[in-house]
Amino acid sequence: MQSLRNCSARGLLLSSAVRGSSPRSLRISWPRRSGVGGGETASGAGAGLGAGAGVGAGTAGALQKLRELHAIAFSSRFLLFTNVGISLTLSCVGDVLEQHFEIYCKEIERFESTRTAHMAISGVTVGVICHYWYKMLDRRMPGRSMRVVAKKIVLDQLICSPIYISAFFVTLGLLERKDKHEVWEEIKEKAWKLYAAEWTVWPVAQFVNFYWIPTHYRIFYDNIISLGYDVLTSKVKHKQSHPHLKKLP
Predict the structure, then answer these.
(1) Which of 109, 123, 191, 239 would disulfide-bridge 88, Cβ 3.0–4.6 Å?
(2) DSSP string, the chain
(3) So what's the pLDDT on residue 191?
(4) CA quadruple 135, 137, 142, 146: dihedral positive or negative?
């Protein structure tokens, strides 16, 4: 009887041990395949992070390079060359736009590259004049008070505008091999149109220029504002100036 109790007790203990054992202890362990699943996932994540870091580093490097080029271009050493380059480029762009508009309106028959080259060279003359003019104004009249700004605007309109408009016509007259009488007649005929347009655009634009814009950015600001004015300049200058270009029916 005691032996039966012992047997039954052993059976109960064995069954309870089996029932009480955790599933984790009974789980079959399969060998893992290294380098296929987890390895690929880890390498893919690493490649993605590496690519993102590379793009970010490339962008930061490009921005740093642009900052360095900007600092060099607008430094006192190279500012004259930068201003002349900006004036040359936008004078050229203004003439290209005007010529294409004239072709579209059938006012001229074909695009004339010599005309654009002459306008670009005139931009060099104007760029040099404006560069030294702004430096002189800021040296003689420092500050940004309303009184100083108003004086600069008046002087700019009464002195600088007539000078650079005249320089524009003289430069193109030399490039077109006109004599001084022809240049003078063209100035009398056309310069007043450009000067009148100056009074409608530049007093307000120059208020912004003299009140907010630093000296080394003024030519850049001028040329951005005057892109439309450059189109008008090209139109006024070359109106009826080419006998072989006639209006089409």
Answers:
(1) 123
(2) -HHHHHHHHHHHHHHHHHHHS-HHHHPPPPPP-TTTSHHHHHHHHHHHHHHHHHHHHHHHHHHHHHHHHHHHHTSTTTHHHHHHHHHHHHHHHHHHHHHHHHHHTTSSSS--HHHHHHHHHHHHHHHHHHHHHHHHHHHHS-S--HHHHHHHHHHIIIIIHHHHHHHHHHHHHHHTT--HHHHHHHHHHHHHHHHHHHHHHHHHHHHHHHHHS-GGGHHHHHHHHTHHHHHHHHHHHHTT--TT-----
(3) 93
(4) negative
pTM of structure: 0.70
pLDDT of 84 strictly over 70: yes
Segment 5-14 mean pLDDT: 44
